[in-house]
Amino acid sequence: MNLLSHFYCAQGNSSAFQAGGASADLLPLYRRRLKVFPLWRQWKAAPEGPLVGFLEGMAYHFQVDSVFHVHRLFLDLSQPLRQIWGRAGGPPGVKFYFAAHLLAEIHLDRLLLQRAFLSDAFYEMLNEQQETIIRFALANPQADRSSLKDFLGLVRKERFLEDYRTWEGCFYRLNRVLGSRRQRPLEPQEQTAAREWLEKGEDAAWAALTAFRDNLPALLAAQRVTTSSYE
Fold it and tell me: According to DSSP H, which parts of the chain are helical?
């Protein structure tokens, strides 16, 4: 899941809990070498005050992803995208399974922006919990206070998630990630094929996302998901 989807699944919990869930995806955008799971394990051994709820939220992020990536919600979006692109006739140079993984998650954030109106609350949470996020990250030498504070401020100022409101923004973000992994951007015909297919299934995807969130406690219990799956 992506940033806003994790925030959606963490609704009803404290802002520190929500910040922990968001930071698992946000901090690697700040520094790719900043590996959050080892850092989570390091803090978990001796948690301090405000970080207790934050660490619980990050653990929940790991647990939710473990369920999500084998759930029909994710598979019913990502698997057809791979097939659609395979038929689109684009040149080699992109791993469709990776691009489909990314676009499935971006699409769910797009639906949340359009239907759940959570973006303001997301940025307010980041502002409230900025010092907690920085405190967590500074245990890793890849982080420094000044640059991380600037990064978090920029995420709020530029409203990072707003790109997902439009297909142009969605594919811009997707292609930037592909480029960072030395893969080619999606061709226009590949983008069009994906957009048309996803638009046809928007109502079904939204229903599946809300059902997934509502059923998460049972899904987590049934699969006995723990953070050990990340170790």
Answer: 3-9, 15-30, 36-44, 51-68, 72-88, 96-115, 119-128, 130-137, 145-158, 167-180, 188-200, 202-214, 216-223
Number of domains in the chain: 1
Phi-psi group of 31: left, alpha or beta (phi > 0 → left; psi -120 to 50 → alpha; rest → beta): beta
The confidence score (pLDDT) of residue 32 equals 83
| Sign of the Cα pseudo-torsion (79, 81, 86, 90, in order) | negative
DSSP 106: H
**Three-class SS state of 227:** helix
DSSP, res 210: H
SS3 184: coil
Note whether 119 and 161 are within 8 A (CB).
yes
Rounded to a whole number of angstroms, the CA Rg of the chain reads: 18
C-alpha to C-alpha distance for 174 and 103, rounded to whole angstroms? 7
In angstroms, rounded to a whole number, what is the distance separating the alpha carbons of residues 178 and 160? 18
Tell me which residue of 215, 206, 203, 205 sits closest to 64, measured CA to CA.
215
Measured between alpha carbons, how far is 147 from 186 in angstroms, rounded to an integer? Answer: 32
Reported pTM: 0.91
Tell me the residue type at 22.
A
Residue 206 belongs to domain spanning: 3-230
Reported as a single tens digit per residue, the pLDDT across 139-182 is: 999 899 999 999 999 999 999 899 999 999 999 999 999 999 99
163, 3 Cβ separation under 8 angstroms: no
